[in-house]
Write a structure and sequence with these properties.
Bound molecules: adenosine-5'-triphosphate
Pfam family, one: ABC_tran
CATH superfamily of the domain at 387-414 and 425-606: P-loop containing nucleotide triphosphate hydrolases
Strand content: 5-15%
Organism: Cystobacter ferrugineus
Main location: membrane
CATH topology of the domain at 387-414 and 425-606: Rossmann fold
Keywords: ATP-binding, Cell membrane, Membrane, Nucleotide-binding, Transmembrane, Transmembrane helix, Transport
Strand order of the largest sheet: 6-7-8-3-9-10
InterPro entries: AAA+_ATPase (IPR003593), ABC1_TM_dom (IPR011527), ABC1_TM_sf (IPR036640), ABC_transporter-like_ATP-bd (IPR003439), ABC_transporter-like_CS (IPR017871), P-loop_NTPase (IPR027417), Type_1_exporter (IPR039421)
Largest sheet: 6 strands, mixed
Oligomer: single chain
Helix content: 55-70%
Radius of gyration: 35 Å
Shape: elongated
């Protein structure tokens, strides 16, 4: 796979050439993808491009024969008919090329989008939490439907124009060999200037990609429904718009300077080409008036020279836009190449503790720090959850509670130490097997813009159609009353994104989230990460009473800042700076008079006074 492009502009000329080289190394990979998307379209594109490339020379040649025939007063109708036929053919070829382009865009765009989604499924949580990888994925998604096809089409357009130019050269050589030399020589400065400016433009765009994303982000703040309340209350509009404007102005200055230079060079070098054209024109016209060449030759010369310059321009602009296409592809290939597979079990075949409710969870001297981070999120943490135990995790923000859950679900692996489930090291288990034993409600649970039944059923995909089970889960999660009041009950479409979607309150959504966790009837472990944050006090109490019954045999891990919830747990672990500072039942910890007792009294006093 080609190496990814450097992020900053290359310093030296040599480095620039290397950079340009790495751009064109994206081509084979892109063609392979196009071929995979549809071999038939690939063949059609190749054949049509070649036919389209030789058509102009054939038409010009027949045009010359017609003029010569007319001057010699010979019959030319058959030649006119031939030219008509060629024009019809040319039009049909152009139309077919447009069709191939359209179909190619759909096929290739679809293939790539699917691959991107597939890759996204393979990625692990650590990738999503890494901004570099996340950026790569968002960039890949944004232009997958247009850029790759653009690159293929640009490459074909260059081939087509090169073939056209060669056929023109053959026609012109017979007429005046040195005019071919003039055509080529007069175009070289324009070629160099265009290539340089295109490269500069490309560097400009790639260089400011992060700022471009910032621009999008500012736009997003002002246009998203989820942001509108804060934008209005804090009066953020003018500030965000001001930042947007400043960034845009910066882009605009750079763009204008590039556009002005492009215009200056384009005009100057255009005049050189025009001068070359008219010099040759004068020469050819005088030869025609002297009778050294025919009038048809002169007409052929004029047409071909003009169109030749057009073809040349075509090549230049294709080279320019290929830079951007290639940049996109290098990004895309880098995204596809992100190594995954760290979730593979260490032991083969993977080990699997017996199903049921007899498995304990044990953390042995676990330390963890996030990739690329210095600070420890968890440090020397040892903890054992007995089968059926309800453990509450408390601690201030950033103490490491959610991190501990991520390690239990093997979304990350401990940096040091080990975690065992039913005596089996998590590293030796298949993560799918492990996760299938958990039911979970997260702090940032998802509000799916699907109907109610699906919102709950997604907790156990295999039972998505099992309505009685969904109804049961809804009752257990305390969501039934909410659902009964909806216009089409379980079939009510939720969320405001689609037509007829019904918007729920934060607490109502949360009840569905809890019900979703209860879909896993055979879950061995339940994780409730702040499940009651937006649930009212009465519902919370009801939920926890039900929860005590339902979780009867299972291990339950509850993270909460509400001590009324926490105190219902068998034991409470107080996390502080990534370590277990206190561990025991509510009564034990209260008697101890440490951090837990302090926090509990603080909250209780708030209610009593
Ligand atoms: N994705 C991440 N990348 C890097 N550091 C992280 C990441 N997530 C959390 N941290 C850091 O790890 C530490 C523990 O965070 P964690 O989210 O586990 O805390 P928490 O106890 O769940 O907090 P809260 O009560 O606010 O939810 C914090 O210092 C935090 O800054």
């Amino acid at each position: 796979m080609p190496p990814p492009l450097p992020k900053s502009p290359p310093p030296s000329l040599k480095a620039r050439f290397k950079n340009a080289g790495s751009l064109f190394r994206q081509l084979p990979g892109t063609f392979r993808l196009f071929w995979e998307a549809s071999p038939r379209l690939g063949v059609m594109l190749g054949v049509l491009t070649l036919v389209a490339a030789v058509m102009p020379a054939a038409i010009a040649w027949v045009g010359k024969l017609i003029v010569d025939g007319v001057v010699a007063r010979e019959p030319v109708l058959h030649l006119v008919a031939l030219e008509f036929g060629l024009m019809v053919g040319s039009t049909a070829v152009e139309r077919s090329l447009s069709l191939v382009r359209e179909l190619g865009r759909a096929n290739l765009g679809n293939l790539l989008n699917e691959r991107i989604l597939h890759k996204a499924m393979e990625l692990e949580l650590r990738h999503f939490e890494d901004s570099d990888t996340y950026d790569k994925m968002q960039n890949a998604r944004r232009e997958a439907s247009s850029r790759p096809l653009g690159l293929v089409m640009d490459a074909f357009s260059i081939v087509r124009n090169l073939v056209t130019l060669s056929t023109y050269a053959v026609l012109l050589v017979s007429l005046s060999p040195w005019s071919v030399a003039v055509l080529v020589v007069a175009s070289i400065p324009a070629f160099i200037a265009e290539a340089r400016l295109a490269e500069e433009g490309f560097r400009l765009y790639s260089w400011r990609a992060p700022e471009g994303r910032k621009l999008n982000y500012l736009e997003w703040i002002l246009t998203r429904d989820s942001h509108v309340k804060e934008v209005k209350v804090f009066g953020l509009g003018p500030l965000v718009l001001g930042r947007y404007r400043a960034l845009f102005q910066k882009f605009f200055q750079e763009d204008r300077s590039l556009a002005l230079r492009r215009m200056g060079w384009g005009l100057g070098l255009g005049l050189v080409s025009l001068g070359a054209f008219y010099g040759c024109y004068a020469f050819v016209a005088s030869r025609a008036s002297l009778g050294t060449i025919t009038v048809g030759d002169m007409v052929l010369y004029l047409g071909v020279f003009r169109q030749g310059q057009g073809a040349f321009q075509g090549i230049l602009s294709s080279v320019g836009s290929m830079y951007e296409g290639a940049l996109f592809m290098s990004n895309l290939f880098a995204f596809f190449d992100i190594p995954t597979g760290q979730e593979v079990p260490r032991a083969l075949p993977a080990r699997s503790p017996p199903r049921g409710h007899h498995n304990a969870i044990e953390l042995r001297d676990v330390s963890f720090r996030y990739p690329g981070k210095e600070a420890w999120a968890l440090r020397h943490l040892s903890l054992r959850l007995e089968p059926g135990e309800k453990l509450a995790l408390v601690g201030e923000n950033g103490a490491g509670k959610s991190t501990l859950v991520k390690l239990l679900l093997r979304l990350y692996e401990p940096t040091e130490g080990d975690i065992f489930y039913g005596g089996v090291n998590l590293k030796d288990m298949d993560p799918k097997d492990l996760r299938s034993r958990f039911g979970a409600v997260f702090q940032d649970f998802v509000r799916y813009q699907f109907n109610v039944a699906e919102n709950i059923g997604l907790g156990h995909v295999e039972a998505l159609e099992d309505r009685p089970r969904i109804v049961r889960a809804a009752e257990q999660g305390g969501a039934s009353t909410v659902i009964e009041a909806l216009p089409s009950q379980y079939d009510t479409m939720l969320g405001g994104w689609f037509e007829k979607g019904f918007e729920l309150s934060g607490g109502q959504w949360q009840k569905l989230g809890v019900a979703r966790a209860f879909m896993r009837e055979d879950a061995e472990v339940l994780i409730l990460d702040e499940p009651t944050a937006s649930i009212d006090a009465e519902s919370e109490h009801a939920l926890f009473e039900r929860f005590q019954q339902l979780a009867a045999e299972r291990i339950a891990l509850v993270i909460s800042h509400r001590f009324s919830t926490v105190r219902m747990a068998d034991r409470i672990a107080v996390l502080h700076n990534g370590q277990v500072e206190e561990l025991g039942s509510h009564a034990e910890l209260m008697a101890r008079g440490g951090r837990y007792a302090h926090l509990f009294n603080l909250q209780a006093r708030g209610y009593r006074d």
